[in-house]
Amino acid sequence: MLGLVALAGVSAAAAGTLWFLDSRGITPRALSPYVAKRSSGHNDAIEQTGRWMQRTLMALDRGSPYAGDDTLLTLRAGGLAPVAPVQALRAVAVADTAALRAAMAAALPGDVITLAPGDYAVPRGELAARRPGAEGSPIVVRAEQAGTVTIAMGIAEGFKVTAPYWTFENLTIRGVCKFQLFCEHAFHVVGDAGHFTARNNTVVDFNSHFKINARRGKFPDHGAIIGNTITNTTIRDTSTSVTLIDLVSGSDWTIRGNVITDFIKGGSDRISYGVFAKGAGARNILEQNIVICEHLLRGPGQRVGMSLGGGSTGKQYCRDARCLTEQEDSVIRANLIASCSDDGIYLNSAARSVVSHNTVLDTGGIVVRFATSSADVEGNLVDGAIRSRDGGVVRANDNLDTSIPSLYAGRHPVREMFSGVSVAALAWDGAAPRRKQAPSQPAPDLCGVQRPALPTYGAFESLAACKR
Description:
single chain; 10-stranded parallel sheet; alpha/beta; 5 helices; 12-stranded parallel sheet; about 15% helix
């Protein structure tokens, strides 16, 4: 009898703990680093128990990691058509770094600066884009074909764009700094650099490949980052921010159709992001991207796939100098986000947001945090929980997600809807789950396919439609 009473007591305690974790929105992968931190510095038995609990929590929540391979690069998100030939007002051909630097310094609206096939080294001195283009006549820096031009940058900032209407396309850009701390940005878009476009580039081995921010009261609005491959080949050994697209205080940006992978921060707080928009910007659209936090790399720390608000912004860097909200009226739509040690989608002080038709696998799920955040969350397929924290307002409508108690039990019903162990080869295991009602705002899927009246939950009808 005493044994039964004790067992009942243990069961009640476990149920109470699970209720508490569920009520606070604490997933196993969020609890895991807390357990490791609390057990650190104690005697050997406690530390060993802490490490065991950490491993167990992560194994329950994450299960077997998706296989990483180069087939991911065979996918074309966003249904992008080949880039049409550029009509130049003045064609400028360059064949070395000095000529490229000179052409950019003397550029006029409508110039198309085309790099001859080959390798270009930039060991010192940013490539400055200081001359303005014009509406309908941007200044274009490009390769004729993607994969024919590689620019090796051994500097903190590669292309420094401070004037409006510049476009960069078909380039391969690699960070080659001796110390990773020094390869900060391939593109720094700052101040008056509105209407910037980066299209169909491959950008590799920087801390924050694209950095966008205000300067002297001017804001680089109306930008576009479309159809790029953005990644790292190693863990970033740096104490600075690791966020592959780092948008601060800019408004009306479109971030579409990119493949963003492997952003592990090895130094300082070890927290990193694939993409965030913050700093009191508005009306930014993050859509039809593939974000794989851990594709070919694995490592310690917390990685978030996409965020409106990031980890907050210092007031001096905010568009309104206060950051009453980090974002307003911004959209996260039709993205595939996977293999993140932290949340897939994180909203921090993001008012009137829309989070719709995303597929979120092997992440902590979708979080709307703080009373200044509100979001319409609709049609998402989430291998994790959709939840509010610290007063965030979630208006959830017709999603498929996974309860936190299921995660602590090691159950992943959403993940089981797919066959295959590679993110690039996801296929429905049986009939695709279709929504019960039509979307409030119909839009194409991840692959650019027009969706039927009752679409599937998540980002895509069939991932096969994204094959190049």
